[in-house]
């Protein structure tokens, strides 16, 4: 995108904002057709989903979910509040205490979850466009990644449902014991807006496999996919009351769920600040277990033996995939000093061909709009903060387009460790590029953060790789790749990035209570 001065000179819109769909290396705005590349879905599900039925909120209130491409309303959605959460929790409690779901065999549950996955896959295109409309994503990428991950998670845990086992224990003396792994009860899920379909599935799938029932509170910015998935779950035969979905706002519906005395656990993905509030709510209510997947400021460490072209592409995808709206984005890029200048030059050149625009009308687009006006303004405020602190804006960093929430991806150089942009999670397309000299310095810089979600290492030296991987304090480390996730790979952080794992067999632990059963061994037992 050129330097900041070049970007300002090329401005073509109101207030100096270039139009979306611009490719600067071609000398100005590219032409884009307003014709939609994908068929718009019918918005069929906008009410709360409680006990197998779509219902209005008790209050009758609704809120608008908006298209981030334009800021226009997509649909009015029922606004859940405490009274609605109470009804949803009651439905989930009744389904758990008296219903068939926890009393089915694991194989029966697995068959229904697998059917759920089939239905999600059959409706993948509609789901992808629906989520893209709600969140500003590219439908083709959303279909492959978001919906693909969701179906993968459902299938994985469908296969796990009949593989939940306890242990047989030999105690001291004339006793033996065994353990039962029992479904915990009613789970509360508060999911974020950046990957709504994926997040719904990776929370719901292991809970279903374990035999739990649940209440899901989707983000108010992106409620539509969760309601559609609830409809598909019912079609799959999952009994009424097992899955309930209550759209609404965090301070009302979210707070009611987190503090509910009849909810047995809460899993939350979102900001560290809200994570604190959920832990407080648990402490003040029934001390329910809380599992948190929170913010991140992940490092990507590029050593001087790396393939530079590959490293540049990796840095771009690790920062700007999903518009930078990813908790595990590698927003701190550390490049070894001897190759830093070459890396910076290649990165600046590569970013000239990056296209920001409407992903539903322009096939060239790499990056759509930020999810809403609040996030758009937040990202721009951090970019301004970086400039004020003395960092150099190498490329991008400006709003673009005449409407909607588009931002050119920003790459900052001359970033110091104590700058706000280097310390705080921005959750947008902002990269901080920094240098290091030695392995020891790289490790120290990578760990100099309150977060510990992810990290990336780029090197051909296996000894360096092994040392850094074992030294970086993060829940997930990628070596010569980034954003490679799978249903079999545990995902979760350390430090202020939270605790507890989504995905992998470890995810089941959150939804299972371990009960020990002790029996005596009477005299005459052939062995002890």
Automatic annotation (TrEMBL):
Pfam families: Aldedh (PF00171). GO terms for molecular function: aldehyde dehydrogenase [NAD(P)+] activity. PROSITE patterns: ALDEHYDE_DEHYDR_CYS, ALDEHYDE_DEHYDR_GLU. Keywords: NAD, Oxidoreductase. The active site is at residue 293. SUPFAM superfamilies: ALDH-like. The keyword rRNA processing does not apply. The keyword NAD applies. It catalyses: octanal + NADP(+) + H2O = octanoate + NADPH + 2 H(+). It comes from the Eukaryota. Residues 1-12 have a biased composition (Low complexity). Residues 55-517 form the Aldehyde dehydrogenase domain. InterPro entries: Ald_DH/histidinol_DH, Ald_DH_C, Ald_DH_CS_CYS, Ald_DH_CS_GLU, Ald_DH_N, Aldehyde_DH_dom. Residues 1-34 are annotated as: Disordered. Homotetramer. Belongs to the aldehyde dehydrogenase family. This is Aldehyde dehydrogenase 1. It comes from Paspalum notatum var. saurae.
